[in-house]
Specification:
single chain; 120 residues; 43% strand; four-stranded mixed beta sheet
């Protein structure tokens, strides 16, 4: 796969995809956040991104993915403290080689998360 960004989210506490979690993807451009895409995690744990983001090379620069962690767990019926320990997971990452694919897997619980560049 050449270029583009993909996102995969798993609730590791439950051992299932984080279906329904809202995610927004931004490009940081001259100090401004430009929304590239937003959506919800599907039943396979994937966020469907438009082709111009998911399958096409992006510009060199900084990007940010924002995962709505506490909203996901509240909607699912989990009891969280007020305020929750993890409200959002924000992952700021750089694209230095636009021809490469950037896969962003998030492993999450209400108490912590792990984000990294994975292989797609």
């Amino acid at each position: 796969m050449g270029g583009g960004i993909s996102i995969h989210v798993v609730d590791v506490g439950g051992g299932v995809p984080a279906e329904g979690m809202r995610v927004a993807l931004y490009r940081l451009d001259a100090g401004e956040r430009v929304l590239l895409a937003s959506g919800a995690v599907d039943a396979k744990g994937v966020v469907a991104l438009p082709d111009d983001v998911g399958a096409s090379p992006q510009r060199v620069g900084l990007y940010e993915a924002v995962f709505e962690v506490s909203d996901f767990y509240r909607r699912r019926g989990d009891s969280l403290p007020t305020p929750p320990f993890v409200e959002q997971a924000t992952y700021r990452f750089g694209i230095a080689a636009p021809s490469q694919h950037y896969h962003l897997p998030l492993k999450v619980t209400p108490w912590g998360y792990s984000l990294f560049r994975g292989g797609a």
